[in-house]
């Protein structure tokens, strides 16, 4: 594995960690019904994914060019990055659920106030 590949793998881990942090921050904001903040965190998480994916593409193209060399670090980096991506997708669903819950609670409150 070359230094360039090691750098790319570390970048995968870095961006995966950032993606995960923003995803959980989005969930926390949604729990407080702060949906603009939740959306901003999800947008930042998507940006982290895009940046990490560029590094992932560099690794794949390098591995194809130089032959497959699946080191422990490569496996760890890929696992970390893709797990963070899965968590981001789950966070998006949770934020949507919290938003629907808040909308329904507001409708119920309106209906009850009309009594």
Automatic annotation (TrEMBL):
Q: What is this protein called?
A: PTS system, Lactose/Cellobiose specific IIA subunit
Catalytic positions?
76
Record's keyword annotation contains Metal-binding: yes
Give the EC number(s) listed in the UniProt record. 2.7.1.69
Q: Which InterPro entries match?
A: PTS_IIA_lac/cel, PTS_IIA_lac/cel_sf
Residues that bear Phosphohistidine: 76
State the organism of origin. Listeria grayi DSM 20601
> How does the cofactor bind to this protein, according to its record?
Binds 1 Mg(2+) ion per trimer.
